[in-house]
Write a structure and sequence with these properties.
With about 240 residues, the chain is an alpha/beta fold. The chain has one domain: Rossmann fold (3-Layer(aba) Sandwich), CATH 3.40.50.300. It has nine helices and seven strands, in the order E-H-E-H-E-H-H-E-H-E-H-E-H-E-H-H. A seven-stranded parallel β-sheet has the order 3-2-4-1-5-6-7, sandwiched between helices.
């Protein structure tokens, strides 16, 4: 069984769509997949959140959200402002391990960047990954600033004892500017981790079948198989 933590260089870089793409590709290869989102913020009770998007795009049905707070803030701040209980680090680890026990791959999607405080005591996704000895996939923006943001995130992960197995560009523009084109070529050198693929902007608007089929082209099968520790080459399509 394999646990992978999915983090971003910041918020709104495409973590949820990238998580769905990883899940869809693994499912296409016949692997059982679960997804955990420890904390969802900025979404009211009863509204569709990130896990609903992951389910819609990937077809994964085993999803767990442990806390939801109404204001679009870091989870610990949002919890305090709402007068709601803060997440407990041990409870998150236990929930992920329960999923891991019965699935080939469990993806844990963070909130915002790697060092965003998720709950009581200020624990972060880096802390959770270290507790579970789970590697990390980094979702990065395409444009100016992403080399610095990505290098800082990978360095913070390493300092916490967490391996970053690769980076995914979460929203590749239809008309990439000079910075984006240069970044794609330099990201691996600057961070020291491979680029596992890039996801075209607007991909979250696809339906499930088209999304799953396209994910096989967006992401590098061999690199992902090595990174995730499980074979995920998709089955040949039948006519």
């Amino acid at each position: 069984m394999t646990v992978i933590c999915v983090t971003g260089t910041s918020t709104d870089v495409g973590k949820t769509v990238a998580t769905a793409a990883l899940a869809a590709l693994a499912r296409s290869a016949g692997r059982t997949v679960a997804v955990c989102k420890p904390a969802q913020t900025g979404i009211a009770a009863g509204e569709a959140g990130d896990l609903d998007e992951v389910q819609r795009l990937s077809g994964v049905t085993d999803v767990v959200e442990l806390a939801r707070y109404p204001e679009p803030l870091a989870p610990d701040t949002a919890a305090r402002r709402a007068g709601m209980p803060l997440l407990e680090r041990g409870a998150v680890v236990a929930a992920v391990r329960d999923l891991d026990a019965s699935h080939d791959l469990t993806l844990v999607e963070g909130a915002g960047g790697l060092l965003v405080r998720l709950g009581a005591g200020g624990f972060t996704l880096a802390d959770l990954a270290a507790d579970m000895q789970a590697p990390m996939v980094l979702v990065a923006a395409a444009g100016l600033g992403t080399l610095n943001h990505s290098a800082l995130t990978v360095a913070a992960a390493r300092q916490a004892g967490v391996e970053c197995v690769g980076a995914v560009i979460g929203s590749w523009p239809a008309q990439p500017d000079l910075a984006s084109r240069c970044n794609l070529g330099e990201l691996a050198e600057v961070t020291g981790v491979p680029v596992l693929g890039s996801i075209p902007e607007g991909s979250g608007r696809l339906d499930r079948d088209d999304f799953a089929a396209a994910a096989a082209d967006w992401l590098d099968h061999e690199a992902l198989s090595a990174a995730l520790g499980i074979p995920i080459r998709t089955r040949p399509r039948t006519a």
